[in-house]
UniProtKB/TrEMBL annotation:
One of its GO terms (molecular function) is calcium ion binding. This is Probable calcium-binding protein CML28. It comes from Punica granatum (Pomegranate). Residues 23-58 form the EF-hand domain. It comes from the Eukaryota.
Length: 102
């Protein structure tokens, strides 16, 4: 079961909850990308800690470490562009989000 074909072609007809979820993920991905301080296309623990600090984490260093453990699929200790979706899912599951409306 998937989305009806019309929803894939015409995103304007997506229900607001789906549209909001898609926008939330895109916004979170863009947010995390801004913390790639050295421009290498990957997020290290320090960069993630800064991001989680700005999101209001009480222990941003720990949150960053846990995020890497959850989202770092290749085990290199960094979050690459390919792993960004897992990082965003982790952040949203932990209650970090932006108040946006479609």
């Amino acid at each position: 079961m998937g989305l009806p074909k019309a929803w894939m072609v015409y995103p304007r007809v997506l229900p607001k909850s789906i549209t909001a979820a898609v926008m939330q993920k895109k916004t979170m991905k863009d947010y995390f990308r801004k913390f790639d301080c050295n421009g290498d296309g990957k997020l290290n623990q320090r960069e993630l800690a800064m991001a989680f600090r700005q999101l209001g984490a009480m222990a941003p260093g720990l949150r960053a470490l846990l995020a890497i453990l959850k989202a770092d699929e290749n085990g290199d200790g960094y979050i690459s562009e390919d792993e960004l979706d897992k990082l965003v899912d982790y952040a949203i599951e932990r209650g970090y989000y932006f108040n946006i409306s479609p």
